[in-house]
Amino acid sequence: MGKPRGRRLFVFLCVCLPVLVLGLVYTVMQPAEYQATARLEITPASTTPTPADDTAGAKTGAETGGGTARGHRAFLTEVQVLTSRPLIEEVAERLSKSGGLPPDIGSDPVDGVQHMLSTETVEGTEVVLLRAEGPQRQFLARLVNSLTSVYQEHLATAYQKSTGTGADQLRDSVQALDQKVAAKRQEVEAFRSSNDIVSTERDENQLLSAAKGLATALNEAKSKLAAAEGQLRAVRNAASAGQALVAAKDNPTVADLERRASQLREELHDVQQRFTPQYLDLDPAIKATRARLDNLEQQIKTERAAGQRAVVAEAEGKVTAAREAVEQLQQQINENKSAVQTFMARFGEYKARQEDLTHLEQLHRAASDRLARLEASDSEVAPHLEILEAASVPQLPWRPLYPRDAGISLGAAVALGFLAVWLVEFFSRPEPEIAAAGRQPWWPVAVGRDATAASPPLLAAETARLPAPDPPPRELTDTEIAALLRAANDDGRLLVTGLLSGLSAEEIVALDWSEIDLDAGTIRVSGESARALPLNDPLRQLIIVRRALQPQAAGVVLRSLSGGPLPPEDVRSLVMYAAYDAGIDGADEVTSQALRYTYLIYLLRQGIRFADLGRIVGRLPHEDLAGYMRFAQAQPRRPLEQTELVLPALRNVAG
Q1: How is the chain split into domains, by residue range?
Q2: Mean of the per-residue pLDDT values for the chain?
Q3: Torsion angle of alpha carbons 53, 57, 61, 64, nearest 10°?
Q4: What is the pairing mode between strands 516-517 and 127-134?
Q5: How far apart are CA 103 and CA 510, in angstroms?
Q6: Are the C-beta atoms of residues 529 and 640 closer than 8 Å to each other?
Q7: Which of 10, 221, 372, 427 could be 325's S-S partner, Cβ–Cβ 3.0 to 4.6 Å?
Q8: Would you say residue 254 has pLDDT above 50?
Q9: CATH number of the structural domain 458-654
Q10: At what angle do helices 252-274 and 284-376 cross, to 10 degrees?
Q11: Rounded CA gap, 83 and 117, in Å?
Q12: How far apart (Å, rounded) are the C-alpha atoms in residues 81 and 87?
């Protein structure tokens, strides 16, 4: 064993030391760079109206809502001005005059200084971080503070120029608009007087009012004409049909004739009832009565015809009068049409001039308001620079981080050393030794402590022939175990730690406080696999914490919400939930059997004696034990006292 270890150490040192020396030399040779930072709050001037803005009307809601966006753009513009070349040129000139520029700044000091500077805005505020990076730590603080002073002076000068120029321009604009309004008002009044326009309301002007009255009268006359023509057609149609156009009560003559004729008809009717027709034809009185009746009927017809002619003539007269009225009104409208059209053109021109005057008055009023606000709020809208934190001389380098880079060099050297050792061992692995010819399995073997430690391991060929568990559970890595413990809740963490300490799921659920002896550091497991299990950290610490939550220390350790023992399905759920929360791939494969399987393999790979294995994990079925033998390392078996019972992942999490 001495020669392989010496060879591994030699290979490891031959690779690790040169790589470590090269990495440390490279780390030390890197020049140190420092960083000086100042924290500034820049409040730009409020947006003031310009002469170009005077052509706009009153401020709308959209313009008001855009004030925040304009303020943010103004802030970003000031941030760009902070590191602009004109300001840096002035800073470089001041530092050069005072002898503050370092000699190795380069041929173009302005360009070199500009590359050193950078800015970063703080989201949601008007705070900007001004940084300077470089190897001259004294110069960096002086540079940042000088640039801050120059920028303050620039803000004051630029604001004085802008406010003075803007106010003068706005005042001139107000005076010009005042003159334009007065001239336009005189022009509109002269035009109104010359064209006899009373106001912008149409009905208040005489000519338009008269034209409107003629149009209304013409429409009424046309309606009357249509009604008269309809009545005339109805009268003529009735006359043609022989209908009476005038009622008898409306014509006294016809009424009297009809009354007399009616009396004669009654007399004849009475006579006809008493005498025969032959007698009546011979009676001269009856003949005279009939003659008078015929005469009366003829008179009635004549009177009715005269009445119909009178009605028709009256209807024709109404039609003629209505037509003459329409023609007369139409003639008057035609005569006034040209005058109305001329007046309407003048009226439209007057309204346009009046609108122009109103627009000029609005512009004048808006400009006057802006000028008043500008003159009253000079102190409120002035830009402001507040130095929240001035730059100080940095004491530690910003980059490179020598401890970090040295640690990286050390880690890389160690990793390369182990890789080299693995490659050498891989290519120089010896052939498996053949057992001595004289050794026979039936020879007696010495019994004792030394003999047990020197007992030969199972041959690789024999362990390969042993059956594997069917199906084999999943073996968890240390990383997965650590993630599982961090993601589990209190019950799940106690359950997982117990499974990785030798207890089965059934034994953990049935674990009673009376079986735990914290002073002796043991757990007395009862049942088919009764044993005294060592109580090691971190399981001991978890039980101490659980006992503080259950001061009565009676009953089972793990309890359900109802206070009884934890059901088996809850055990499966706790393990699976922790696996899912830990983000383990194939979380459904992480079960209590997988955790117990992982712990068994960990013990077997250390070379624990199979006789001592049951003292930790309990009794194993014969077929499972034969399957687990394939994981026994080809090395002498170790007694329980020389076996590490706590998984590395549990020690790391507990630490």
Answers
A1: 1-30+401-424, 204-378, 458-654
A2: 76
A3: 20
A4: unpaired
A5: 80
A6: no
A7: 221
A8: yes
A9: 1.10.443.10
A10: 140
A11: 7
A12: 8
Three-state DSSP class for residue 437: coil
Structure-token pair, residue 39: 């924290």
Strands, DSSP E only, in 485-591? 516-517, 522-525, 531-534
Residue 649: partners with Cβ closer than 8 Å, 6 or more residues away? 478, 479, 481, 482, 485, 500
Tens-digit pLDDT profile for residues 184-206: 788 777 777 776 665 555 555 55
Give the number of other Cβ atoms within 10 Å of residue 620's Cβ. Answer: 16
Do 432 and 613 touch, CB atoms closer than 8 A? Answer: no
Residue in the structure block whose two tokens are 């920028």:
151
Which residues are bridge partners to 534 per DSSP? Answer: 522
| Residues whose CB falls within 8 Å of the CB of residue 418, separated by 6 or more in sequence, listed in order | 12
Overall pTM surpassing 0.90 (yes/no) = no
Q: Which residue has the higher pLDDT, 235 or 367?
A: 367
**pLDDT attached to residue 462:** 44
CB 47 within 8 A of CB 373: no
Yes or no: say if 199 and 188 are a contact pair by the CB < 8 Å rule: no
What value does the mean pLDDT take over residues 462-486? 73
Task: Supply the DSSP string of 85-134, one letter for each residue.
Answer: HHHHHHHHHHHHHTT-S-GGG-S-HHHHHHHHEEEEEPTTSSEEEEEEEE
By three-state DSSP, how is residue 39 classified? strand
Q: Give CA 475 to chain center in angstroms.
A: 45
Return the structure tokens found at 55. 């052509």
| 565-583: pLDDT as tens digits | 888 788 888 888 899 998 9
Q: Residues 102, 96: contact at Cβ < 8 Å?
A: no
**pLDDT mean over 487-501:** 89
Give the number of other Cβ atoms within 10 Å of residue 368's Cβ: 16
How do residues 147-169 score in pLDDT, each as one tens digit? 888 888 888 887 777 666 666 77
Residue 556: closest CA among 567, 321, 112 = 567
